[in-house]
Structure formats: C-alpha cells, structure tokens
Amino acid sequence: MNDTNSLVVVGAQWGDEGKGKVIDYLAAEADVVARFQGGDNAGHTVVYGANIFKLHHIPSGILYPGCISLLGSGMVINPLVLLDELSELEKRGISTTNLRISTKAHLIMVYHQVYDRVNEELLGENKIGTTGRGIGPAYADKALRRGLRAIDLVDIKVFRERLAQVLPLQNHLLKWAYGHEGYDLDQLLEMYRPAVEKLGPMVVDTSRLLSENLAEGKKVLFEGAQGALLDIDHGTYPYVTSSSTVAAAAGSGSGLGPQCASRVLGVIKAYTTRVGEGPFPTEEKGEAGALLRDQGGEYGTTTGRPRRCGWFDAVIARYAARINGLTGLAITKLDVLSGLETVNLAVAYECCSSKTKEFPASMATLQQCKPVYEVFPGWHEDISRARTLGELPEAARQYLEAMEETIGVPIEMISVGPDRTQTIVKPATYLAGWCGD
Ligand code: GDP
Ligand code: IMO
Ligand code: MG
Hints:
four-stranded mixed beta sheet; 20 strands; binds guanosine-5'-diphosphate; binds magnesium ion
C-alpha cells in the first residue's frame, strides 16, 4: 500500500452531505469502491448531465463499468430492496456484473421493518425518526446472534434451514410483543427465492478480494454512509443510526486492519441539515432555514422527508474531524449560499452561561446549547460554473478559509453543484494526486 491508493470518504455531519456526488467524482479513478456499514437507509445521489441516480445499498462506483463495487461485512442488506435497486440500474443500461456481496453482511428481513415501525410508534413523541428500513432491528438481531447473513443466500436449502431456526422466535416476538400475525416459513421462502437466485452468485469473500486489490496497488475507495453525528457510539445518541459510521469502521466493516486506508476525506455541507429527531444547535426554523431547504433541494433521498436546515457548525465539524481522523475536507453545496447578504458560521456554543468549543455527550446539554456565530459577508454571483478557486468570489473564499481555520483540516475539494463536472479540486493536495493532477 502507498499513500495514494486508498481513501475513506465519510459524512462529517448528520448525513446527506453529498457523499454520493464526491465518491462518484473520485470513483472515476478507482478500481474498487466498498461500502462498509449501514444499509438502505443511505440515499446517495449521483448526477451527470440529465442522469440522476439514487443509490441505497450499491456503492457509487457502480456507474463506472471497470470498477468493482463491494457490499462489506459491516453492512445490513435488504435482499428484496437490493433486487429492485439492481433491476432499476439494469433497466437504465448500467452493468451490475461487478457487484460483490460479503459472505458476512447481515440481512434485513421483512420482520425487521415491522419492528422498526412499531418501535417508533411506541416511542411516540420520543421517536428517533428512523428511515423505517429495519436498520436498528437488523443490527440488534446481529448482536443477539440470531441474524441471517448473505452467506445464507448462497443455497436455498441453507436459507430454509437458517430461516427455520430463527422464525419461531421471530414469530413469537411478532405475535406477543408487536401485534403482528407472524410469517409462514414457506411463504417467506417464496418471497426470498428470487434473491437467492440473483444475489447468491454475488456473495464472496470480499475481505480477501479487497486485500488482494490493495496488495496489487489498485485504488480503493471506502464509501461511508450516514455521518459522524449519526454514529452509534459517538453520535447524538439515541438519535443516531445503529452502525459505526466513522472512518475506523472502514477496516472492521470490510475485513481489513485499521491501516487499510492512508487518507480520510470528510464530506461537509457548507451549511447543516438533519433528518429525523434530535437536537440541532444551529437549526433555523424560520425563513433562513426555509431558504436553505428550497435553494438546496433539501428533501430526503430515501424517505422524501423535508430536511431540517441551519447554519454551518464548526463545533460539530471539529468533533467529526477528531473522531474520524480526517486528513482532508470536501465542502459541498457552496453554491446554495449564493445570494445571501450574510453567512453565519458557529464557532462555539454558549451553554449554562459559559462558552464551549467542545461537543457535549448529553442530549439535554446539547439542547441547551446556543450557537456563537461569526458573521461573514455573503456573495451574489452564481458560482455553479466555477472550476478553480480563483473563479470564486472573494467573499466565498474568505468563508472557506474561515471554515478551514476553525476546523483545522485542509479543504481539498469544493462542490458548486450536483453535477459531476461542478467540482473544484485544490491543486497540490492528496485529492489532486488521486485525480492524476
Ligand atoms: P449523501 O447521502 O451524502 O450522498 O447526500 P444526498 O445525495 O442524500 O444529498 C445531497 C443532495 O445534494 C443530492 O440531491 C445531490 O445531488 C445534491 N448535491 C451534492 N453536491 C451538491 C452541490 O455542491 N451543490 C448542489 N446544489 N447540490 C449538490
Ligand atoms: P446517507 O448515507 C441522513 C437518520 C434517520 C434517523 C436516524 C436513524 O444518505 O447520508 P435509521 O433508519 O438509520 O435507523 O435512522 O438516522 N439517517 C440518515 N440521515 N442521511 C442518511 O444516510 C441517514 N441514514 C439514517 O433519519 O434520524
Ligand atoms: Mg443521503
């Protein structure tokens, strides 16, 4: 392995930072793109020309015919949703023959979606605001050692056997705790037969495949889903997802050691958004938030829910930089801020009459935190055609410099629109080297 052949890309806020766009751009140079956690709760958008792709399980590298796409062992996969995702891509002329699924990835089953829905209903106003995809219950079953894995999809007899082992317990829970009639083994088997037939042959030892590719000096991108603040350990618990979303999970979620990638790119929006419940210190509930939502098209890729919007929060970004070991930043959606008189950037929080730059662990404390803003002059120019830093207005460059300084990590990429081409890579950076400049 050398310094240029492996890179982890992670979200550094509450998800939807534009990881799909950034990964698609970098995947042009990659041999392998691997997801390592999460499931179809992810919604990664890739845009080129009139083409818009919304990917849920499948890595953004699938759009390049020469690139291998891997679903790693740290993922939870809904076989039925993955079948739809594959056929949607195939209908649009995208080859899916390079997709490989880890033997060890866990399966999201129909009953996990029932648990997810009922759990949320029972939590009432304390709900998490999940995507309803069954993510939490699938990871819970993995930890409880009663999950099904992708390797069980390789043979219908094995799948039947494994299902027969876990279904009595699941049916007991469904009937007695969740008010659901439960599932019949043979009906479930028929429901999943197409998945066994189509996905079974894609199931391989992805750990070995990745390690062989790395040893050959191939370029590998690890595609994170969700974001730092949704991490099960380090996020805004309990308002988080159920997987480890930080860069360290790239190794464990792909069957490799922690040195599997030499660099970690954090994707950060030029402002902040969040879907689902939980505290959000820089949230703007009024006009400013509505403006960001409208200009940024901030509606969930997976659920269509309007995203909560607010100003950039450097307290979060610094925290994300630490827990991920970020070596570079990709700032997205800078174009969305064009036209504002002033732009706010939170540099600290005011809480219980003291000022802090640290991100608190207690949600009750975070709820009390008021952002301390530095206010920057806005710019009015349309920046969506800028392809170099020099083409950005002075005020936009000042704002970027302030971000870089408060976060303490170099900006390597700036995105000024959803399209592949609307991207600025800073010269003489690691990413410039990745892209061959
Ligand atoms: P992800 O989950 O991190 O991949 O992000 P999503 O795809 O859920 O949401 C990001 C949205 O912003 C998508 O609709 C992208 O097409 C869009 N997008 C990405 N980068 C930019 C950008 O620089 N400017 C604008 N205007 N839109 C962007
Ligand atoms: P990408 O990869 C934004 C949020 C949900 C909810 C919480 C738990 O597109 O950035 P879950 O269904 O995972 O149990 O929901 O996590 N969430 C996301 N928010 N982007 C995502 O993925 C998300 N995946 C989950 O809204 O608050
Ligand atoms: Mg998304």
